[in-house]
Design brief:
This protein has about 260 residues and is an all-alpha fold. The protein is built from 10 helices and no strands. Helix 3 packs antiparallel against helix 4.
């Protein structure tokens, strides 16, 4: 990719383009999307009627709020768990490295749907945890943590060993080296995969509907059973998930531009 950019002399970052070029291309993109949607949906035999969903707006809002709370609680827990398993994978203690590797490969190698069913109906039930919302948040956090641990590890290992040796030669302690040298550079390197994983976690929360968590997907399915407005309900569902995930992409791009300066 970088080789292609170097060879392509006409390639310029967006901030280097004139406002006229940016606006004209945005207008062209909007027109293309409008025409695509028009020809895709206008001649369809299915006639959309969103008016039947108006009376269920509170149920949509409640599902949106539940998804928001569960997702951000899972994000918070996953960052903590991901950091712990990343530390385990880089530890000099062989047992911790083996345990981290086993956990990461087990979680990443099995479907999230299977994990939700097994953990909630077997493990959580045997341990006496019956709060499906808390258990669902923990399941999502443990699933995302396996991916975050690898992202964190890759970001840390991307730092040149010469920088660490130079910092030690200057008398910096290990904590100072991590805070002032490793963390800022590693964060810059992992922003893109990190934002993608966070967005995936929010969308993966839809699988909690199989354990009757009243999040967006579960509520949309219930509304569909009342109104039989299948496509209308799922269009609203898609827009709601886009509202949740889009800010993550915007913040990630802002931080990327900030670190590039």
């Amino acid at each position: 990719m970088f080789l292609f950019i170097q060879k392509n002399k006409n390639f310029k970052p967006l901030k280097a383009l004139s406002k006229l070029k940016i606006i004209s291309n945005l207008i062209f993109l909007v027109l293309f999307l409008v025409l695509f949607c028009y020809f895709s949906f206008s001649i369809s035999a299915y006639h959309f009627d969103f008016s039947v969903l108006v009376s269920y707006k509170e149920k949509f809002f409640q599902g949106f709020l539940n998804t928001l709370i569960i997702s951000f609680l899972s994000l918070f827990l996953s960052i903590i768990l991901g950091g712990i398993f990343c530390a385990f994978s880089l530890s000099s203690v062989i047992f911790l490295r083996f345990f981290s590797t086993f956990y990461i490969e087990l979680i990443r190698g099995t479907p999230l749907l299977v994990q939700v069913l097994l953990i909630y109906y077997i493990i959580a039930n045997n341990w006496g945890f019956d709060n499906r919302y808390m258990v669902g948040a923990i399941i999502l956090a443990s699933f995302c943590a396996a991916y975050l641990a690898e992202i964190f590890r890759a970001g840390i290992l991307s730092i040149s060993i010469s920088q660490l040796e130079s910092a030690r030669a200057l008398g910096l302690k290990e904590l100072q080296i991590f805070i002032y040298i490793v963390f800022p550079q590693a964060l810059k390197n992992i922003l893109a995969p990190l934002s993608g994983q966070f967005a995936n976690l929010i969308k993966d929360s839809s699988l909690l509907s199989v354990i009757a968590v009243n999040e967006l997907t579960q509520n949309a399915q219930e509304i569909n059973s009342y109104t039989f407005a299948t496509l209308e309900a799922y269009v609203i569902l898609a827009i709601a998930y886009l509202i949740l995930t889009l800010p993550i992409s915007v913040i990630s791009r802002y931080l990327e531009r900030k670190y590039q300066k």
